[in-house]
Amino acid sequence: MASQTKPVLHGYFRSSCSWRVRIAFALKGIEYDQVPVNLIKDGGQQLSDQYKKLNPMQQVPSVEIDGITISQSLAVIQYIDETRPGPALLPADPKKRAQVRMISDVIASGIQPLQNLHVLQKIGAEKVQWAQHFIERGFQALEPILKQTAGKYCVGDEISMADICLVPQVYNAERFKVDVEQYPTIKRLNQTLLEIQAFKVTNPSCQPDTPADLR
Q1: Beta strands 8-11 and 33-36: pairing type?
Q2: Given 56, 105, 168, 173, which residue has the most CB atoms within 10 angstroms?
Q3: Percentages helix, strand, coil for the chain, rounded to the nearest 5?
């Protein structure tokens, strides 16, 4: 089913949801084009009428692939896993598959949305403390879950969608000065994953739209 046309990722270098998709493409060996959507410039390019037609939620990422547009990172990851060859991003075993989805949802639904840009802009001066609170609350739940499920990676010894979600969230935690030392399993997994090429080349520090002072 794979199309001859390269997928197009509309994203932002520091968006953790965009980073998830970049990691998934890299793990699968999929070539793709990037169209930067600057969440700060011009009051937020994601709020333009043109972008709203692409993604009515006015968020990143949006991925144009196989003649459709998909706008939620976990939906994109699962779609490319189901339609492209390469390493499986969800395990075949139903129990492990459920664990991967659980961990992914804890991060993608329970932690990240509470410290994304739109929310922090509404919070104002207390945004750092707000972000720290909800990341720490989430990590306090995630750490014991990962203690039970982890092998070399989040679930057993194969990289999965859970790992794809974990690394960008730890990046955000460090950005908001959360002490990751409190969460040894999370810290170990993150360090292991950051040594893998697919996670290195997709890092926010080396994207086409990364500002020079952050490279």
Answers
A1: parallel
A2: 168
A3: 60, 10, 35
